[in-house]
Design a protein that fits this description.
The protein is of the alpha+beta class and about 300 residues long. It contains seven helices and 18 strands.
């Protein structure tokens, strides 16, 4: 995005989408000629999604290799990127804002009357067909102001039912929900306010054992405030790795499939997915650097 923002208006017209990165595809953002209009996608400091048909698809088919290093930085082996994620977990970071308005309420409301915005999801290739509403993203990060009547931060890895973790939705146990205060929800769902949201799951070691079950640990942050450490059932993660992760073809920003197709009206300043957990100190450092960098872009 930085390279694009430095181009002249004439250069922007001829900008090759491939310059956005390997495997990145912009869908929607159509100009008058029916081609992708990058000026609809970018500002000097953000990516924009209209909540109607805009989204970004990022290839993730397991073809890349990741080096496994020891504590001294020595490479021990190179393994498939999906295997690396399975061993170590992930960290998802989002910085930006969402907009809830009359144009998007119906498009984001489920048959249960819950309103949500999907920030990031997975794609197994089949759910590219927007007419197939019977499917769900195996990996998903969302926010809602009224889910289960209370609302909060939602995420999931896998679709296995009847496996309970500490924050499992009692009806859809694969959904993890962290309830928020009214003040926290007001900040997230105010289009004039931005928020910074992090989920970090460590699958490199078992966090605790209880009632014959083993659990990993994940942490939730909102605007550099840690909301807590929570336990996640090892069997849920194993099921995700053996099914959803293996089938995964891409990551998607701005569009999720959850028994329906939901496009998200968001302005994203920064979105990152790491194939490992991060420490509290690393998350805090990322927060400070990301905010500082965004402020610099805004001031230019």
């Amino acid at each position: 995005m930085d390279d694009y923002n430095n181009l002249t208006e004439e250069e922007k017209k001829n900008y090759d989408i491939k310059n956005l990165g390997e495997g990145v595809e912009l869908v929607g953002y159509n100009g008058e000629d029916g081609q992708v209009d990058l000026s609809q996608a970018f500002t000097k400091s953000s990516y924009k999604f209209d909540g109607i048909d805009d989204y970004v698809r990022i290839a993730y088919d397991g073809s890349r290799k990741v080096d496994v290093k020891d504590e001294n930085g020595r490479v021990l082996e190179s393994i498939n990127e999906k295997e690396y994620l399975a061993r170590n977990g992930f960290t998802f970071e989002f910085y930006g804002n969402i907009e809830k308005d009359e144009d998007t309420v119906d498009a984001h409301t489920t048959t249960d009357g819950w309103w949500w915005t999907g920030l990031f999801g997975s794609n197994d290739g089949v759910i590219d067909d927007s007419t197939d509403i019977s499917r769900q993203c195996a990996l998903e990060f969302m926010v809602s102001d009224n889910y289960m009547e209370t609302g909060g931060i939602l995420w999931r890895a896998g679709l296995e039912t009847d496996i309970f973790s500490e924050k499992s939705d009692p009806r859809y146990t694969y959904n993890q929900i962290i309830y928020l205060t009214e003040e926290q929800k007001k900040k997230i769902f105010s289009s004039n306010d931005s928020f910074y949201f992090v989920v970090s799951l460590d699958t490199s070691r078992v966090y605790k054992e209880k009632n014959g079950e083993s659990f990993y640990k994940y942490s939730i942050f909102l605007d550099n405030e840690k909301l807590g450490d929570f336990s996640y059932n090892v069997r849920s993660w194993d099921s995700f790795c053996n099914n959803g992760l293996k089938a995964m073809k891409a990551f998607v920003v701005g569009r999720i499939v959850d028994f329906n197709v939901f496009f998200s009206k968001i302005e994203a300043y920064s979105i990152r997915l790491y194939n490992s957990s991060l420490t509290d100190e690393q998350i805090s450092s990322n927060y400070e650097k990301t905010i500082d960098y965004h402020n610099i872009l805004e001031s230019q």
